[in-house]
Amino acid sequence: MLWCHQIPPPPREHSTFKSIAEAPMRAPLLPARFGIHVMAGMYEEYVTMSKSNVTLFGDGIGNTIITGRHNHNDGFTTSFSASLSDCGGRRFIGAYMTVRNEAGTNKNQAVAMRASANHAAFYRCNFEGYQDTLYPEEGNQFYKECQIYGTIDFFNVGPLVGGEDGGGGTLVVVVADPPWDDDPMAPATTFDDDDDIIVGT
Q1: Which of 12, 88, 126, 162 has the highest Cβ tally under 10 A?
Q2: Does residue 132 carry a catalytic annotation?
Q3: Which range of residues forms the domain containing residue 177?
Q4: Residue 193 designated active-site
Q5: Which residue in 59, 74, 86, 153 is the catalytic one?
Q6: Residue ranges of the Pectinesterase catalytic domain (predicted)?
Q7: CB of 138 closer than 8 Å to CB of 159
């Protein structure tokens, strides 16, 4: 069974929820999947999904945009700079949206998507930022028809599992023009063999 709530873009005078993050609080404590439809629009907020079996889906890449500006230079750790985080739960699904961090090229770590829910899956999502755009902190994750935009360490940690074991996933890394002379790098150098990010072909 799928429970579903719809989130309109700002302003939300007549909406049940005043933010995206409010919606999962209504999710029943049952094994049923809970859907949150985020309608087309720009959402400048910081969203944390901490319940299991939540599906967050928009109206398409470039149409539904979750964005923020938190970054290391302004006092946020890598984990807490994320515009969207899935943590504390399991089996999160994100689909049909753009997740962005607009902090800029000189702010160091500035995460768009922090993924730490085990057995998470993403379908047709863009992750846009500069440094540490996609931060797969822990857990097993699957990406299908997704793109990452960045200049350095686009996907911060975790091994990339591809080839025959990829399970049909596709993850495209797009190198933005860096403002410095160094070549962009991806991924970062820290890995944990217990966690898999399946990207395949």
Answers
A1: 126
A2: yes
A3: 2-198
A4: no
A5: 153
A6: 15-155
A7: no
